[in-house]
Amino acid sequence: MKNKVQLITYVDRLGCKTLKDLKLLMRNQLKDLFGGVHILPFYYPIDGEDAGFDPINHQKVDPRLGDWYDLKSLSQDVDVMADLIVNHVSAQSEQFQDYLQKGSHSEFASMFLSFDTVFPNGATEAEILAIYRPRPSLPFTKFKLADGSNKLIWTTFTSNQIDIDVKSKTGEQYLAGILDIFQKAGITMIRLDAAGYAIKKPGTSCFMIEETFEFIDELSEKARSRGIEILVEIHSYYKTQIEIAKRTDYVYDFALPVLVLDTLFNKNTRSLKKWLEVSPRNAITVLDTHDGIGIVDVGSENGKAGLIEDSILNNIVDQIHENSNGNSRKATGEAASNLDLYQVNCTYFDALGRDDQAYLIARAIQFFVPGIPQVYYVGLFAGENDMELLAKTNVGRDINRHYYTIQE
Fold first, then answer.
1. Which are the catalytic amino acids?
2. Domain 94-154 classification at class level
């Protein structure tokens, strides 16, 4: 992968309608600005409940955008990164619908995790409460099968995102099939989406346990054998990032966005300097992404100190809400569906109170700290919170997922 700034974008939210349009944009208006592009989910369908992160068919480009040949063509101009959604598929997928119809007789029965798959002897209250949750609900959804029986299916994120048993033969074949298609399409790097939740084990948090590290190791080897590098997406305690960085090609520096806010809000560089002394060098740096601004990445965990004191972190969150005139509060926590407990939904420009100089300083810091910088398409234009889209969908993260027209 080239050591050049990369763009993060959806195909259809940057004045483009198709992958061919995106290629023209990269060749013309954005020429020589980016060495690579991380294309957010372009699988069928792109307009699911989670903006493509709930694919019905992970092996099919949404025909409204183009096809795999268009990806191959784009990859001849710039490095292309794609998401491998390892943890789940859509409840509307062919595989899960087959399971609902045929139950244990389905060829895909072993591909999905049910409550009794993980807890064959039942679970205690303590075991259930030990499961790490990014959302305030339990990680199970009741589904009725065609024979009238009910099954509790593991759904880490939403009831439309069905967790895969990545250690089953069908689960392994499913992921390997996607890697094969990526290789043929010229994709040279993949982002492992939600990889930290992939392994479930009774009596544990089911998040970033030792077996998760082993799974990431195994999947990374399969990708590398196809000429594909791995970027692991983990929102977690900062020392977890340091550990996973030792075992993969790249990790995100998710601590940086809040540490830069701390530097600018409080005119204090201590926490940022402390992090830069230990931060992974094989990092992809970001200030903003399609998700919110990560809080858990700098906070404390189970009594262990974080990169920023909890009281200061709370003040930073309050300052974001104040700077955005309360709009970020409307998109965060219980104020919006599809909520997350570990992030604030807001554009980075609005988090800084639309202060041009502060924004430029923030980008300068990002570009000069260790790592390869990625710039989110909304951040490219110093975008403001999209309250209209938020009101339309009531999905908190949509506040930072604006649909730009070519005129804009």
1. 193, 233
2. alpha beta
